[in-house]
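Backbone description:
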Amino acid sequence: MKPSLSAAGVILALTTSPAGAQITLPEAASQTASVEELRDRVSLPVGVMTLDGAGTRRLEGRVLRQAFVMEARDRITPLALLEGAVDPLRRGDWELVFDCVDSGCGGAVARFALPLLPAPDMRLDTADMALATFRQGEAGGGREGGDARWVTVIVSRVLGELYVQITRLGPAAGDEAVETIALDTASDTASTGQDADAPAAPVVEAPDQQPRRAAEADDLAGLDPSDARALHARLVARGHVPLLGIEFETGGARIADGESAVIAAVVAMLRRHADLRVAVVGHTDYSGDTEINMALADRRASAVAEALFAAGVARNRLVTHSAGPFAPLTTNATAEGRALNRRVELVLIP
């Protein structure tokens, strides 16, 4: 039986005071990203996540996602950090919807089902994680999300660091504001700095976020997508590899004939390493409707997978997923960046 967060006293609850929520984090935690959408759709975990899409609920409203990172000192675990983060908030009137730890969240599927901010701001090890989702208010109201507020806190330990993401959803802009959580290292807490009635403070990316993403994109400059050995080396070292030799037009999911060299390299890699299983993950830029982008990314992943199947790859070695616009490789502010973000990646399945 999986360990229970609720049995351990982990209940994420937000205070009902006008100042809003308080989420306690150690002083060593530093914020890496903050992204707010005044009206958007997001899938939050409400059960064990599976390949058929079960375990998440699609909600609409004002979405705020924030990420933090700290060194995993003194053998602190994701569960322990989550317990400490939410313990002061248990006395609120929030309902626990779902909690899980490690592979009990859904295994590799969780990586694609969760609304994660892109690396390096947020990283996830599905075998070393803990999360909890809570709801306050009614979930009806005639629209996805209704008048309810939702909070999901995800904690994962990756390569000696603890990553935390807090995703909050409330009524869309024009209704109530979703409070902004800002790290207060002096008091070891992340808390709101505004009244619920005040205009929402602008949310900007952490100062080093764009340079870090640019560096990660630049790191791909020397990768030859038609070299099977290079693809395998990066896949094993990073856990994922973009198939940058396959490019998509805006709104398109067709693989051009000239890109057969990339498909051939992937086939050669899979034949050489018969134990490999991979997820084929489709991505889009951030142009247009989120729901349409999610479907488009799924079509891109399926197009690559079908090309691999046609070349002889066994169907039990691949699964397809859609990340939509939620895991950009680089900035969406330029045409060049958007072109890079329209891609398909291979993700190693442990």
